[in-house]
């Protein structure tokens, strides 16, 4: 039984467990199969980095307060975050990497930089 390349359907010569006829075909096959996921991940990562950069602009030291409108004016997207942190008192901080925000009152947010960053 002759095996054929998964990318170009050419005959494969060599090891019996070989799936591609060349490195070029292997790379082309893997690039095609991962393209959609990679583009999606790239888009999400771009939004997260933008959110982080916006939060960082508002924090001169370790903590600052800002209104929701100011964040939105800069293009902040509240739908994307990397993780949350819940305090012992039940307050939930939302983070984009080491930069976080805590909803306080009247659409104001406390912006914080996680310690050790």
Considering the chains and any ligands shown, give keywords for the structure:
117 residues; alpha+beta; 5-stranded antiparallel beta sheet; 36% helix; elongated
Helix percentage:
25-40%
Strand line-up across the major sheet: 1-5-4-3-2
Query: Gyration radius, to the nearest Å?
Result: 23 Å
Main sheet overview: 5 strands, antiparallel
Measured between the Cα atoms of the first and last residue, the distance is: 58 Å
Shape designation: elongated
Average pLDDT: 91
Helical stretch tally: 2
Low-confidence stretches: none
Q: Total domains, how many?
A: 1
**Which percent range describes the beta-strand content?**
15-25%
Q: Total number of β-strand segments?
A: 5
Spell the H/E element sequence. Answer: HEHEEEE
What's the quaternary structure here? single chain
Helix-and-strand structural type: alpha+beta
Short description:
The mean pLDDT is about 90. The chain is built from 2 helices and 5 strands.
What do these coordinates show?
By secondary structure, the chain is α+β, with helices and mostly antiparallel strands. The protein has one domain. It has two helices and five strands. A five-stranded antiparallel beta sheet has the order 1-5-4-3-2. A hairpin with a 2-residue loop joins strand 3 and strand 4. The mean pLDDT is 91.
Secondary-structure map:
Elements: H1 23-57, E1 63-67, H2 68-74, E2 83-86, E3 92-96, E4 99-103, E5 108-113
Antiparallel strand pairs: 1-5, 2-3, 3-4, 4-5
